[in-house]
Amino acid sequence: MKEALAVGVMSGTSLDGISTALVRLEDNQATLVAFRQEPYSASERGSIIDAMARGTPKDVAFLHVALGERFAGAVLALLAQARVAPRDLTFVASHGQTIWHEPGRATFQLGDAAVVAERVGVQVVSDFRARDVAGRGRRSCRWPT
Question: How far apart are the C-alpha atoms of 132 and 145, rounded to whole Å?
Answer without folding.
Answer: 20
